[in-house]
Write a structure and sequence with these properties.
7-stranded mixed beta sheet; alpha+beta; single chain; globular; 2-enoyl-CoA Hydratase, Chain A, domain 1; 10 helices; 3 domains; 7-stranded antiparallel beta sheet
Length: about 450
Amino acid sequence: MYKTFYIGLMLLAFAPVAFCQGETDEATPAGPESGRAQLTLDDLRTFTDVFSQIRRNYVEEIDDKTLLNAAINGMLAELDPHSAYLPASEYKQLDDTSQGRYSGIGIDVGIEEQKILIRKVITNSPADRGGINPGDIITAINGTPVKGRLLQESIDEIQGEPGSTIKITLLPANRSGNERTVKLTREYVDIPSMSFELLEKQYGYFRISYFHKDSAKDLKESLESIAQDGITLRGLIIDLRDNPGGVLQPAVDMADGFLNEGLIVSTKGRNVGMQLEYRASEGEWLPGVPLIVLVDRGSASSSEVLAGALQDHGRALIVGERTFGKGSVQSVLPLRNGAGVKLTTARYYTPSGRSIQALGIRPDLLVEEVDIVDENDTRIREADLERHLDNDTDQNAIDGDVSIRLEDDFPLQEALTVLKDAGILSGSIRSGKEMKTED
């Protein structure tokens, strides 16, 4: 099986979930009035004593900065799986990703049989202009062979600052030609996160791989372009499978687009600045057109915000697997040294008050892919992560009421079948004025 990712998008591709870039206001520190015990001078001395003992006696010499970073990382790792220290380079990469871009050469690679296989080449990217083709195998980077190294090290080396150069040695896709080396200059490349296909001439299908700041705008413009082409959609499928999330606001904006009024999502945290509500404004995309949202256990974070809002308002039928269950908001807080802290600062709640933390969104129609429903399934959800936040609302049922197992292992076909007859489950797709609640 391929492991696919865009170079420069490692934070999204390799983490079990992605993260929402939330508010950047610094959280109010806990004071004596919080009722929590404060550190004493002896506590601080204990820390410096441990630091000193490691410096003097550890089997290998470690510089002070490395030790300090380890202490910071350890402090954040004890909180929950999504809080982390971001060195300056990662902090900048996160900002680029939220802008829908990365600095690289424009290739989508997969790991196959311990080789780095180029799956896709972005049009007009440095790789495209350099003659790199899908199917090519990367054999060396900057003269260093890939074989004998950790593949992740080779992949990391492809990343770099815009304007910097890199030499890629390639074996042609047909494997019959000689290796060749191309020298490329890295630049900012827009990350393709959305694709559209017209199914049976009347049903729209959008696949959204993650959310960046322009995702909602891109979807709206695509719908307007379809209408300008004289196409009248009888139904729409939004595919959020394996979408790890990303930036929160575009997911909220998409929900707003499909809703005419009402609460979209609320957040609750210790800091008063995280007590937020997002509401839909008047005006709706495709009013009256049935909408299906496809999800699976890889749908997380912002994906769950969108699915939960449309489900609670009855605007869409949710089809697929129970989702990942990441119901927490991470705020990216800048530090004076150019680094940042990704800190869990709130939980979010669907319009009906549900927290999906560690439970996920329960689909209206459960459709499981046959080839992965077995005892050897190694995919994880939020609840499988160490130190995950508990769900703080009273919910018992987490499985769908209807289960369909497809012989061809393709849930999209089932979604299309349901979309053709939006009344297959009476009342499942409503006008958006009735709130869906848990039993």
